[in-house]
C-alpha cells in the first residue's frame, strides 16, 4: 500500500536507496517496481480523499478500486462477443476460483496486471475475427497501448503477451500467404506505430527512469545489500528458501525437498492471508476432481471435432499449452534462483490459457456432455463460495456471526 500512497503525492519514483520508504526484508521497495498501477491508483486515491476519507484508512479506497476493476473485467468477459471463442469461458474460470476473488478484494497490483492481460487478449481475439490486412492504424495503436500497460505491470505477466501476440502474428502471416494485399510499406508503418505507442506507454518507467539512475542493476544490488534483513542479504543469504541455486540446489532437489507442486496447486485455487489460511482438504480434492472433469470434457470435444474446429481456436489451444508450460517453468525458475515462493498467483498470467483448456468448447458440446459440465460448474461455484466464507471467517472472526446467518438462510 505504501507505493500507492507514495504516488498519490509524487509523479516520479525517488532515487534508488532513498530514505523514508518502506523496504521489505529483501531490501526492496515497491516504488521502484516500475508498475504503472501504483501511479494510477495513487492519483485516483488522492482525488477521492478530497471528497471522502474512509474511517479505516485510504487502504480501503485501493481495495474498492480493485473490486470495481473485477466487476468491469467480468462484465467485459460475459458481454463481449467473439466468433471463434466465447469470452464467458474465461469469466467462468474467474468466478470458480476463490483465489481470483481474493486477489481482487485487497490492495495489490496483481489485479491490474490480470485485467490488462484479459483486455489485450479479448481485443486481439475480436480483431482476428476480421481480415488482419484490412485493420486501420488506430487498431495497431490500441494493441501498443495494452502491450505497454502489461510491460509496466507485474514482470511475470509478460507471459500473458504470448498467446494474443502469437495469434495475431499467425493470422497475419496466414493472410499474406493466402494472397491478401498488404503493402510492405503499410505493414512497416503499422508495426512501427505499435512499437512507438508501446514505448510511449512503458518507456518512462521501464527506460527513462532506470537511465536516470546510472548503473541501474548495480544500484539495485547495492540497495538490497544495504537494506535487506541479515538473512536475506544477496552477498550471504542464510534464509532457508532464499537464493536456493546459489546454495547448490537444483530443480530436482528443490521439488524433492520442498512441496512446491502441492502448494502451487493449492494456492492457485485458494490459500489466503500470506499463505497462512488454508481450505479444508476436502475442498481441494473436490475442486481438483471438478476441474479435472471440465478438462476431460474439453479434450473429448476437441478430439471429436478437431477437423471441424475453427482454425483460430486450434491455434489458440496449442498456444495455451505452450504458454502454461512456459509460465510453470518461469515460476519454478524464480523459486530456485530468487525466492522459494510456490504461489499459484504466479501462474495467473496463464489464466486465459487455463480457461481455454477448461471451458473453451462448452458451446459445441453435445447435450449429455453439456449437462455434466453444468452440474460440475454449479458444484464448483458452491465450493468456491463455501471456501470464501470459510476462510473469511478465519481471517476476520468478526464476520463469523454474519456468515452463520448466511449459511443457515
TrEMBL record:
Keywords (A to Z) from UniProt: Membrane, Transmembrane, Transmembrane helix
The keyword Ligase belongs to this UniProt entry's keyword annotation: no
TM annotation in the entry: 61-80, 111-128, 140-167, 187-209, 283-303, 315-334, 346-364, 371-392
Taxonomic superkingdom: Bacteria
Protein name: Glycosyltransferase RgtA/B/C/D-like domain-containing protein
Amino acid at each position: 500500500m505504501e507505493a500507492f500512497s507514495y504516488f498519490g503525492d509524487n509523479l516520479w519514483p525517488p532515487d534508488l536507496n532513498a530514505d523514508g520508504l518502506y523496504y521489505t526484508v529483501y531490501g526492496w521497495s515497491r516504488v521502484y517496481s516500475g508498475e504503472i498501477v501504483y501511479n494510477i491508483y495513487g492519483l485516483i486515491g488522492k482525488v477521492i480523499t478530497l471528497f471522502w476519507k474512509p474511517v479505516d484508512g485510504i487502504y480501503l479506497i485501493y481495495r474498492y478500486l480493485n473490486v470495481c476493476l473485477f466487476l468491469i473485467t467480468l462484465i467485459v468477459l460475459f458481454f463481449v462477443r467473439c466468433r471463434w471463442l466465447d469470452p464467458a469461458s474465461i469469466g467462468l474460470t474467474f468466478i470458480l476460483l476463490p483465489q481470483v476473488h481474493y486477489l481482487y478484494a485487497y490492495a495489490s497490483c496483481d489485479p491490474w496486471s490480470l485485467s490488462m492481460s484479459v483486455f489485450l487478449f479479448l481485443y486481439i481475439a475480436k480483431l482476428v475475427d476480421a481480415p488482419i490486412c484490412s485493420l486501420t492504424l488506430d487498431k495497431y495503436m490500441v494493441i501498443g497501448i495494452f502491450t505497454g500497460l502489461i510491460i509496466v505491470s507485474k514482470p511475470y505477466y509478460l507471459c500473458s503477451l504470448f498467446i494474443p501476440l502469437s495469434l495475431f502474428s499467425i493470422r497475419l502471416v496466414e493472410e499474406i500467404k493466402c494472397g491478401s494485399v498488404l503493402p510492405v510499406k503499410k505493414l512497416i508503418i503499422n508495426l512501427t506505430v505499435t512499437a512507438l505507442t508501446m514505448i510511449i506507454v512503458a518507456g518512462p518507467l521501464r527506460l527513462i527512469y532506470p537511465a536516470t539512475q546510472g548503473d541501474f542493476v548495480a544500484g539495485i544490488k547495492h540497495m538490497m545489500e544495504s537494506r535487506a534483513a541479515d538473512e536475506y542479504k544477496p552477498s550471504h543469504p542464510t534464509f532457508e528458501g532464499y537464493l536456493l541455486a546459489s546454495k547448490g540446489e537444483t530443480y530436482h532437489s528443490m521439488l524433492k525437498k520442498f512441496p512446491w507442486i502441492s502448494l502451487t496447486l493449492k494456492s492457485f485455487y485458494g490459500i489466503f492471508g500470506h499463505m497462512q489460511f488454508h481450505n479444508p482438504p476436502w475442498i481441494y480434492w473436490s475442486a481438483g476432481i471438478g476441474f479435472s472433469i471440465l478438462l476431460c470434457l474439453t479434450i473429448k470435444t476437441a478430439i471429436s471435432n478437431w477437423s471441424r474446429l475453427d482454425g483460430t481456436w486450434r491455434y489458440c489451444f496449442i498456444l495455451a499449452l505452450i504458454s502454461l508450460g512456459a509460465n510453470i517453468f518461469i515460476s519454478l525458475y524464480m523459486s530456485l534462483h530468487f525466492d522459494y515462493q510456490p504461489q499459484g498467483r504466479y501462474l495467473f498470467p496463464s489464466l486465459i490459457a487455463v480457461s481455454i483448456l477448461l471451458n473453451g468448447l462448452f458451446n459445441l458440446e453435445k447435450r449429455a456432455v453439456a449437462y455434466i459440465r453444468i452440474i460440475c460448474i454449479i458444484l464448483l461455484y458452491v465450493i468456491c463460495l463455501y471456501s470464501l466464507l470459510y476462510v473469511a471467517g478465519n481471517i476476520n472472526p468478526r464476520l463469523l456471526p454474519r456468515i452463520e446467518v448466511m449459511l443457515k438462510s
